[in-house]
Design a protein that fits this description.
With 402 residues, this protein is α/β, with parallel strands linked by helices. It has helices spanning 10-19, 35-42, 58-68, 82-92, 121-124, 127-132, 147-159, 191-199, 239-247, 261-272, 290-297, 338-345, 349-367, 383-392; strands at 2-6, 27-32, 48-52, 72-75, 95-98, 136-138, 160-172, 175-176, 203-206, 209-212, 220-224, 229-235, 252-257, 281-283, 286-288, 308-309, 311-322, 327-337, 374-376, 398-401. Helix 1 (10-19) packs across helix 13, helix 3 (58-68) crosses helix 4 and helix 7 packs across helix 14 (383-392). The chain is globular, with a radius of gyration of 20 Å.
Length: 402
């Protein structure tokens, strides 16, 4: 297996650090628009090489794949680049993995009731072409989406006879401080992506179809395990809701994220001021996207680890009827402590938790344990080998009855 890793930011660097401890691949070419960043991530292992890439160019992706004999393209850049990397991998004859899906576009007249172009629609439109070529595009294989989707497959196969709701719930008690020890606003993941998913109309699957709601709707307090505790969660647009119902029979699917009042207020202000826009504006003779400016002035998520404390939890709350015919409510989860990931890998916990899952998936593909063709989500594969290997990586998952 010869892997092209597109993106050496927080998640890409964590991917490189995790994969360096495994032996299922021949080489990883770490590619980034910033060559110095790619070289830094590639320096962690002698099997790695660094290259510069323009992720917005399918031709650039294809050329780099051909130059290095790449068999698998691992997309670790913002989802705005999904289709160019996806198309470049196909043109080069490589299989493809990403941790998100192609972007959505809200319904033009009823954005808070009806879906427009949904997350992943552009990629799923190419599914027949990939399947006919015998090639695999495994989409949504981060942590959320990704591990939560694996949990859905496990719950359907082993825990439930009927599922009422697949409810992804994500929360944390992370705190980032400045040099004086004062808490600061510093998102632990790509601010560009966070704005995209939090301000778009959230999608809900209900009784056989998708519909949308206003941002931050249906607030609820969810009690997260392992000391994180109660966190208010709200509806957010996310890929799980667009993936899970394609393979798993459920009456309802939701994604709710524990953002907190401060974060929600900041996002609302950004939207009110137009600072969430991706359309370029001219400022003193320079064209710039307001959202890019917001992302640029905030701390790089890859650098906040040493000043971060706490844990992050990704999981799936499943309700319905158990295999014994009795009502069941179960939370399947994965908790990661920032102190542990910084000590063991030098990576902050949110990007590390995201990055470990595609590494596990690639190892299963290299072994032949997972195999398939077309555009597929994690739900299309057996969950048990994935969860067993995740534990083997030293990062166990848990189950809590609610």
């Amino acid at each position: 297996m010869r892997i092209l890793l597109v993106g050496a930011g927080g998640v890409g660097a964590a991917f490189a650090a995790i994969a360096a401890r495994r032996d299922f691949f021949e080489t990883v070419v770490v590619a980034d628009y910033d060559l110095a960043r790619a070289e830094k991530a590639a320096a962690t292992d002698s099997r790695y090489a660094a290259a510069r890439i323009d992720a917005s160019s399918a031709q650039d992706v294809e050329a780099l794949c051909r130059e290095h004999g790449i068999t698998h393209v691992m997309n670790a850049v913002d989802p705005v680049f999904d289709m160019s990397v996806f198309d470049g991998a196909y043109a080069a004859g490589a299989d493809y993995l990403d941790m998100a899906m192609s972007l959505s576009r809200p319904h033009p007249t009823a954005p808070y009731e009806q879906t427009g172009v949904k997350l992943g629609d552009e990629q799923f439109a190419e599914a027949d072409r990939w399947e006919s070529a015998g090639r695999l595009a495994l989409v949504g294989i981060g942590v959320e989406p990704g591990l939560s989707d694996v949990f859905a497959r496990y719950a359907a196969d082993h825990l439930f006879s009927e599922i009422d709701e697949l409810g992804t719930r994500d929360g944390a008690n992370l705190v980032v401080t400045d040099d004086d020890g004062l808490e600061i606003f510093a998102p632990s993941f790509s601010m560009w992506t966070t704005i995209e998913e939090c301000l778009n109309p959230p999608v809900v699957w209900q009784d056989g179809d998708w519909h949308t709601t206003p941002p931050f709707s249906e607030p609820e307090v969810f009690d997260f395990p392992e000391g994180i505790g109660p966190v208010e969660c709200v509806n957010v647009e996310h890929e799980e809701v667009l993936l899970m119902p394609r393979w798993i029979d459920c009456r309802r699917a939701t994604f709710k994220y524990g953002l907190g009042d401060e974060f929600i207020n900041i996002l609302k202000v950004l939207h009110t001021l137009g600072l969430d826009s991706t359309e370029k504006v001219r400022v003193k003779g320079v064209e710039v996207s307001p959202r890019d400016v917001v992302a640029a002035v905030l701390p790089d998520p890859a650098t906040v680890g040493p000043r971060m404390t706490g844990k992050t939890c990704a999981g799936l709350w499943v309700t319905g009827t158990g295999k014994d015919g009795e009502p069941r409510s179960t939370y399947l989860y994965h908790v990661v402590d920032n102190e542990w990931t910084m000590r063991e890998y030098g990576q902050q916990c949110v990007v590390w938790q995201t990055a470990i899952n595609p590494v596990v998936a690639l190892e299963l593909l290299a072994r032949g344990t997972w195999k398939g063709a077309g555009v597929l989500g994690p739900e299309a594969f057996d969950a048990v080998p994935f969860l067993d290997l995740l534990t083997d990586y030293g990062s166990p998952w848990g189950i809590k009855e609610l």
